[in-house]
């Protein structure tokens, strides 16, 4: 009798992913073929991917936010084209700088709720945020595997230690094959 296909979930911390790509010199997310990248990463075309990001509000009186808003809308369309769901937090402006809010909490909830509801067997987590460790531990207690996916030269040793082995490391050489 053939073995049951594992249910795969991919959770992406959008800000973490953006900055990781930027450090590798991949500066335009719209050039990344997410579908092919994810299939190669998890070694199956059968997965569910969710990109978590703080939503930028369009403020027509501020040309900078208009530019950011338009860029984010292009990213959303690109992600949808590659079968990636989008979960939005929000952006809070403090002292002239924007900060993402609600994104890490949503990722933690997706890890824990997905484990309880048995919506995945293996979760590939593209985030180096150690605040996620309690939800990772809970998912593991429920028999789920959480695989950490980090960027070369900025991997989190705490995430490697607390997630299941083997972890995955993203390098420029590896990701370049998915850049169009």
| Average pLDDT metric | 93
Number of helices: 7
| Strands side by side in the biggest sheet | 4-3-2-1-5-6-7
Number of domains: 1
State which percent range the strand residues make up: 25-35%
N-to-C CA distance: 41 Å
The largest sheet is: 7 strands, mixed
Number of strands: 7
By oligomeric state, this entry counts as: single chain
The parts where pLDDT drops under 50 for at least 5 residues are none
CATH fold-type name: Rossmann fold
Shape: globular
CATH class: Alpha Beta
CATH 2nd-level architecture: 3-Layer(aba) Sandwich
Write the CATH homologous superfamily: 5'-nuclease
What does this structure look like?
This protein has 180 residues and is of the alpha/beta class. The chain has a single domain, classed as 5'-nuclease (Rossmann fold), CATH 3.40.50.1010. It is built from seven helices and seven strands, in the order βααβαββαβαβαβα. It has a seven-stranded mixed β-sheet with strand order 4-3-2-1-5-6-7, sandwiched between helices. α4 runs parallel beside α5. It is globular and about 55 Å long. The mean pLDDT is 93.
Task: Give the SSE map.
Layout: E1 8-13, H1 14-23, H2 34-42, E2 48-55, H3 63-81, E3 84-94, E4 97-101, H4 103-116, E5 122-126, H5 133-141, E6 145-151, H6 157-162, E7 164-170, H7 172-176
Parallel strand pairs: 1-2, 1-5, 2-3, 5-6, 6-7
Antiparallel strand pairs: 3-4
């Amino acid at each position: 009798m053939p073995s049951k296909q594992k249910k795969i979930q991919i959770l992406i911390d959008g800000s973490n992913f953006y900055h990781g790509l930027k450090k590798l010199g991949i500066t335009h997310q719209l050039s990344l073929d997410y579908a092919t990248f994810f299939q190669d990463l998890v070694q199956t075309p059968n997965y569910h991917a969710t990109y978590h990001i703080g939503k930028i509000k369009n403020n027509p009186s501020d040309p900078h936010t208009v530019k950011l808003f338009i860029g984010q809308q292009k990213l959303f369309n690109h992600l949808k084209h590659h079968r990636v769901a989008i979960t939005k937090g929000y952006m809070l402006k403090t002292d002239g700088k924007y900060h993402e809010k609600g994104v890490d909490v949503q990722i933690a909830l997706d890890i824990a709720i997905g484990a309880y509801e048995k919506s995945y067997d293996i979760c590939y987590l593209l985030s180096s945020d150690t605040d996620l460790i309690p939800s990772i531990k809970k998912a593991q207690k429920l028999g789920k595997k959480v695989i950490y996916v980090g960027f070369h030269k900025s991997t989190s040793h705490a995430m490697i230690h607390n997630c299941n082995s083997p972890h995955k490391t993203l390098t420029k050489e590896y990701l370049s094959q998915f850049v169009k």
